[in-house]
């Protein structure tokens, strides 16, 4: 089997611009698999903003807490932290709206419509979840799942109290998912990123998450110094209470395992925190976020469990986070690059015979970038970047899938490749 040259460090040199969005019909599946010691990886439809870029080493956390300003009674019941997630057994027909308040609102509800000035009270009941409370803090999360929606349509909504007009959110909007493998020839774009800071787009754009180590831990000084708080918050209770992924529609488990479709792409969200012998007690020794299966580490052991399934079901790509860097591989099967269909410049993968592994974990974590060890020696590496912060975008139509890694500071494309399938 022929082998390519060693990986290249990213630069702002000339990048190939593939023009292979041909008339071939393709159906892709994208497996998003991260974790055990990983940070949350997220998929955001059609939105990409710039995370913080540090010009030097990121600042260390200071344990001195900022002054706390008490909230008024009205502020305690005000809807906040509004976010969306796709739902429904049939893609495009459902949407889950989630929000929170610091005091329980017993008649929390949802209004929806096709016009921002003509919203109707939804008949669906909002589920209330509370995962933590003490003398100083409590949080109530609400989830309402809309059904019977029209695929690829725009809806407007607001949330709040059914009986108190002063306790409602502004009007937001969302777009439902596309029907799978429909007749729509236009492309759509997805942002994929991990190890990031904070953002404010989830009230308009569906926000699909894959669990990682940060969702099982607490980082605030108050939590770090309280064994009681650590015991309550270090078991994914917050993550599973605040978000509502479509596991019920896909026969998954909570927000840990689920799948969903948008147009020509089927996504599978996999958690390596669960369903394994010894988990979670052994989770610190099994790292799936480094997908190259280095035989010198325990990465290979976990990949051995997954790889036969990935190959059997013809998964096209495996995307992971946790490692604060960007990395793209050749198609790999059983620790060997599979170069059939790969162009000489490695910018086009035509009907790859094995999954393509991608790490997209350099969105702007305050922990800085990860150092690489012997990465250039791996024959499957095409691109690695532990210098720039950025996000990945995925553009899909009926003929091809185009992946780009975009620099956060100036929008420059650092890496790009296209996958086609016959």
TrEMBL record:
The chain crosses the membrane at residues 30-54. Residues 354-415 form the Purple acid phosphatase C-terminal domain. One of its GO terms (molecular function) is metal ion binding. It catalyses: a phosphate monoester + H2O = an alcohol + phosphate. It comes from the Eukaryota. Residues 188-326 form the Calcineurin-like phosphoesterase domain. Belongs to the metallophosphoesterase superfamily. Purple acid phosphatase family. Residues 79-176 form the Purple acid phosphatase N-terminal domain. InterPro entries: Calcineurin-like_PHP, Metallo-depent_PP-like, PAPs_C, PAPs_N, Purple_acid_Pase-like_N. Keywords: Hydrolase, Membrane, Signal, Transmembrane, Transmembrane helix. It is an enzyme of class 3 (hydrolase). It comes from Aphanomyces astaci (Crayfish plague agent). This is Purple acid phosphatase. Its EC number is 3.1.3.2. Pfam families: Metallophos (PF00149), Metallophos_C (PF14008), Pur_ac_phosph_N (PF16656).
